[in-house]
Amino acid sequence: MRPQEIIAKKRDGGHLNEAEIDAFIEGVTDGSWADYQITALIMAMFINELDFAEQSLITRAMLYSGEILEFPESDHPIADKHSTGGVGDKTSLIIAPLAAACGMAVPMISGRGLAHTGGTLDKLESIPGYDVSLSVGKLKDTVAACGFAMSGQTKQIAPADKKIYALRDATATVPTIPLIVASIMSKKLAEGLDALVLDVKTGNGATMTEIDRSRRLANEMVKTGKAFNVDTRAFITDMSQPLGQYVGNALEVYECIKLMKGEGSDHMDRSLQLSKELVSQMIVLAGIAPDHESAFLKLEEALSSGRAFEKFVMNVELQGGDTSVCDDPEALIDGSLERRDIVASRAGFVSEIDTLGIGNTVSEIGGGRTRTKDKIDPKVGYSHEAGIGTRVKAGDKLGSVFCRKPSDAEFAVEKLTAAYTIGENFVERPDLVLEIIK
Ligand code: URA
User: What is the pLDDT of residues 284-322, one digit of tens each?
Assistant: First the structure.
């Protein structure tokens, strides 16, 4: 089948059948389709959308473009969580060891940060020596040894998605729900899961800012997971303010270590709360506990006994990281950085936070990247200390920024101060979990 015929059919609003979608994904995987043909079809899919049948066919074809992990020797249910990304969204670093300590095997394949959102791989790489490029063999051995592994997408996992995602990123065709579903779900289904919990963010710091679109994405992913026999649930969670206290790679690892050690601050609390909610759902879906009450008892014990943190330390060692940061997380905070406070310009209540603005500012002072190849400064970031609903007086501290250069500090203080709207009237703190889609 010639690529031109398939492209023309979708361009004219037709529905692609299994043979046509398989031919496309085979052409991407074996290199026989040129990049311009791939992007022409992707743009036609972006404009004319895909129905559920096409979305499932492309997910399946992308999934089978590579290897599907198998864990025949594991006595544990295989489970994972995936987040659509946000600002200060660091829960993976707590969820993976906590789920492992509760009896699950978690082969977590994660991504890097792009634009204003952070990425788990960048956060982990702020631990000196930590290796996120695991082969399939090493990933499986790590899961067998400590219950979880955290790695980037290997060449063997959904290679067609890797190629298509890079082209979508360069051709403004990322934000379309069917292709997002196919991209995320092909990678997650390749992990050979029994249970999957999705955290779909909504609000001004999320990639989907409107709840209707977040809900549609969540529904489509749950339907797709179930169609592939994976017990799947999606949470829609708040991203109208940064999650927890810190935004910035090393600072977020610091927050997770402090929380797992039971030494977290009140500002960090929502990171732990959301991690617990998501792990509780994984425990129930994986059949480890019958209900959320007993799931919570299990996970609280895994945290308070230190077992979850022990799993984390074991994993850092197995993936080549320097475990001294686990004993001394303060080492993750670079004392030589310029540190400036952000203060309230007037008295009142924090009524709105420009979360995207905070994410972009951290990115611009070196904490993120605009192109996939950009280098990042793992130490810079922001400590967010006044959430929506906080009552403040003029001059009260809202947060503080950690910058490499004084000129960055000037810029960041201006941007971050402008990110907070302070109004006269009391505003309720937004709920963390807005909906659960079954
Ligand atoms: N993350 C992915 O992995 N794929 C998308 O298409 C969007 C976000």
Answer: 999 999 999 999 999 999 999 999 999 999 999 999 999
Element (H, E) at 216: helix 211-227
Q: State which fold the 3-48 domain adopts.
A: 1.20.970
Q: Strand pairing of 148-151 and 106-109?
A: parallel
**Residue 183 Cβ < 6 Å to ligand 1:** yes
CATH of 335-423, one of 3.80.10.10, 3.90.1170.30, 3.40.640.10, 3.40.47.10: 3.90.1170.30
- How do residues 317-338 score in pLDDT, each as one tens digit? 999 999 999 999 999 999 999 9
Mutate to test the pocket of ligand 1, among 50, 165, 167, 208 (most ligand atoms within 8 A of CB): 165
Beta bridge partners of 150: 108
Confidence check: pLDDT of 115 > 80: no
- For the domain made up of 79-329, the CATH class stated in words is alpha beta
Cα of 394 from ligand 1 centre, angstroms = 41
Q: Is the CB of 184 under 6 A from ligand 1?
A: yes
pTM, full prediction: 0.96
What residue ranges do the domains of the chain occupy?
Answer: 3-48, 79-329, 335-423
* Helix H or strand E segment including 350: strand 348-353
pLDDT value of residue 290: 98
* Segment 123-130 mean pLDDT: 98
Q: Is 91 a known active-site residue? A: no
- Torsion angle of C-alpha atoms 188, 193, 194, 198, degrees rounded to 10: -20
